[in-house]
Amino acid sequence: MVRRGHHPDQFLYTNLFQRPCIGGRTRVALQLRYLMAEKGYIEDINNYNTLINRACTAGKMEMAEKVFREVVDIGGKPDLCTLNIILRGHCLKRNISEARLVREDSKTGLEA
């Protein structure tokens, strides 16, 4: 596509990003994130939610928590969907105490 002179826009990058996440190829999705950042595209909460959900589904709670913290660190606002994904991931791993901590920490500052 790029070789033909067509350059992806935000919409195409978002769709390209979500495909490997859904297919379980998290590393490919992470590489696309860096490519998107290099091109100046800003991720929205939906991209973060997709990546967090994929990590939780794969049982990689450390990765999910890292991405979750990244959202907060860059000034992003996790929404209720983000919180539900993290809580579900912890509950599936039987990390009830971690789920409670996330819930308590997230009581303020969530976007509806």
Automatic annotation (TrEMBL):
| Record's keyword terms, sorted | Repeat
UniProt xrefs under PROSITE patterns: PPR
Q: Which windows of the sequence hold PPR repeats?
A: 44-78
Which Pfam family, just one, is annotated for this protein?
Answer: PPR_2
Q: Which domain of life is it from?
A: Eukaryota
- State the family named in the UniProt similarity comment for this chain: Belongs to the PPR family. P subfamily.
What is the official name of this protein in its record? Answer: Pentacotripeptide-repeat region of PRORP domain-containing protein
What species is given as this protein's source? Answer: Amborella trichopoda
